[in-house]
Specification:
Layout lengths: L4 E2 L3 E3 L2 E5 L8 H10 L3 H7 L8 E5 L4 E3 L3 H13 L3 H20 L3 H13 L6 H18 L21 E3 H17 L17 E6 L4 E6 L2 H14 L3 E4 L6 E4 L18 H21 L3
Length: about 300
């Protein structure tokens, strides 16, 4: 039986990254934030919404067009998310939520709850600047090829702006996506057998059946679901993540990817540049050692 068709189109436009306190008033998040911050602590915590002033958001700043992403584009996106260290960013988000829950739980009245919510709204997370800079760079590179992660799940997916909504999404979603894709590749390297793992319980793949002829299609519910499915498929087909001997960044090797971008088995470097620099440095050290050795 042949593999089901990967039936997916994404919406790609122009993007920028802004702090939450810099977002236009007509973004989909701005209205939601106003509503949540006037609610009770229970509603705030139940919403899963977190928007301190320095929280980074991917903002659509131009019309988006529908396109079918190439395998090369999806490979590139998976590779960039594998390279993106988000450990400190993820920890900062987790620590903030722990602090939020403690502070709101200690509030003894509705008035104190709202006062605490008002304080929380003004307090920055203070993300690690190096990891945040790398995340922003990689998110923009990916979005310009395959669009926003959450198209299909509440983000407008049309080629014209809604008069009342400008699409945007938290980079917290991208941190979670990077975590998931890195987990997918890490599972392969476990030294002990694991039962089948639920990778992304909130991302869905719709199964479509057409007739004349009968063909099964897999349609991801969002760009995020498409990326995670593609990453899992890459691992299942033999793609592995290696670490470059020169720069230390992960790169993809093997699998059923485009032969023009496919690394041979046992590759040690992510690029020709790293290979040249590594061997040039090794030759330079060897030459210095021979010159400085005994005569």
């Amino acid at each position: 039986m042949s593999a089901p068709l990967f039936d997916f189109q994404c919406w790609v436009g122009k993007y920028d990254i802004k702090r939450f306190d810099e977002l236009p008033e007509k973004t989909n998040m701005a209205a939601f934030a106003s509503e949540i911050y006037q609610s009770s602590a229970a509603e705030f915590l139940g919403s899963g919404f977190d928007a301190p002033p320095d929280a980074p958001y991917l903002l659509q700043v131009g019309p988006a067009k529908s396109l079918r992403p190439s395998r090369k584009a999806l490979d590139h996106a998976v590779g960039l998310l594998l390279q993106t260290d988000v450990s400190k960013l993820h920890r900062a988000e987790s620590d903030r939520w722990i602090d939020i829950r403690k502070r709101l739980k200690s509030a003894t009245s509705r008035r104190r709850e709202l006062a605490e919510l008002s304080k929380l709204r003004a307090e920055p997370i203070n993300f690690d600047p190096d990891q945040l800079s790398a995340l922003k760079r990689n998110v923009l590179a990916i979005a310009r090829c395959i669009g926003m992660l959450n198209v299909g799940e509440g983000i407008p997916d049309r080629d014209e702006f809604d008069s009342n909504i400008t699409p945007c999404e938290s980079l917290g979603d991208w941190i979670a996506a990077a975590d998931t894709i890195q987990l997918i590749f890490d599972l392969r390297d476990q030294e002990f057998d694991l039962p089948p793992q639920v990778i992304a319980p909130h991302d869905h793949l719709n199964l479509l059946l057409s007739n004349h002829p009968v063909v099964l299609h897999i349609q991801p519910s969002s760009t995020r679901a498409a990326l995670i499915y593609h990453a899992a498929q890459m691992v299942a087909q033999g793609t592995i993540s290696q670490t470059c001997d020169k720069c230390g960044k992960p790169f993809l090797e093997g699998g059923q990817r485009d032969p023009r971008n496919k690394k041979r088995a046992g590759a040690r470097f992510c690029s020709d540049k790293c290979r040249y620099e590594y061997h040039n440095e090794a030759r330079r050290k060897a030459k210095q050692h021979s010159v400085g050795g005994p005569g």
